[in-house]
TrEMBL record:
Name of the featured protein: Ion transport domain-containing protein
Any one of the GO CC terms: voltage-gated calcium channel complex
InterPro entries, A to Z: Ion_trans_dom, VDCC_alpha-1_subunit, Volt_channel_dom_sf
SUPFAM superfamilies assigned: Voltage-gated potassium channels
Gene3D superfamilies (UniProt xref): Voltage-gated potassium channels. Chain C
GO MF annotation list: high voltage-gated calcium channel activity
Domain Ion transport stretches: 31-151
Keywords assigned by UniProt, alphabetized: Calcium, Calcium channel, Calcium transport, Glycoprotein, Ion channel, Ion transport, Membrane, Transmembrane, Transmembrane helix, Transport, Voltage-gated channel
Length: 159
C-alpha cells in the first residue's frame, strides 16, 4: 500500500509516541511546575535583593525553558505544536513560545549591547515580558486541578 510507513518512519513515529508519553507524564509535569514556581520565586527575589548573579540565574532558566520548548516541538513537531485544530494546548503553546522567544531576544539584545544591558526602552519591555513568566503559574493551577480531579475520582471509586 502506498501510504504505509517504511521501517524508518515507523521507528520515528514510535519514538515520538514514547516522547509524548514522557512529556505528558506526571513526573515531567511536576518538574516543569517546579521550574516555573522556582522562576517566579527568583523573579520576586530579584526585585528585593541586589545580587550580581541574578543574570546568570535568569540565563539558566532561559536555557531550561528553551530546552523544554525545543524538546516538546521536536517530539510533537512544530506543525502539531502550532496546529489550530484539535489542539487544546494551542493557547499555552503560543504563550510559552512567545515568552521563551522574547527571553531569547532579550538575551541577544543584552549580549550585543555595548554596556551589557537591553538597549533603550527595550529594557522595560523585556522586564515586563520576564514578569509574564509568572503567568505560567496558571498552567500549574490547571495541572493541580487535574490532579485534584484524579484523586477525587479515586476516592469516589473507593467509596
Amino acid at each position: 500500500e502506498p501510504h504505509e510507513l517504511g521501517p524508518f518512519m515507523r521507528r520515528v513515529q514510535a519514538i515520538q509516541e514514547q516522547g509524548v508519553e514522557v512529556l505528558d507524564s506526571t513526573e515531567v509535569q511536576i518538574a516543569s511546575a517546579c521550574m516555573i514556581m522556582l522562576n517566579a520565586v527568583v523573579i520576586g527575589l530579584e526585585t528585593d535583593i541586589e545580587w550580581i548573579g541574578w543574570n546568570w540565574v535568569e540565563n539558566l532558566f532561559l536555557i531550561l525553558f528553551t530546552t523544554e520548548l525545543a524538546v516538546r516541538m521536536l517530539i510533537i513537531t512544530p506543525k502539531s505544536y502550532f496546529a489550530c485544530q484539535d489542539n487544546p494546548e494551542l493557547v499555552w503553546n503560543l504563550f510559552d513560545f512567545t515568552i521563551v522567544s522574547m527571553g531569547l531576544v532579550d538575551f541577544c539584545a543584552t549580549v550585543l549591547a555595548p554596556n551589557g544591558t537591553s538597549p533603550g526602552g527595550f529594557a522595560t519591555v523585556f522586564r515586563i515580558i520576564r514578569l509574564c513568566r509568572i503567568l505560567r503559574m496558571f498552567r500549574i493551577i490547571r495541572f493541580l486541578k487535574q490532579l485534584y480531579l484524579l484523586a477525587y475520582g479515586f476516592v469516589e471509586a473507593a467509596l
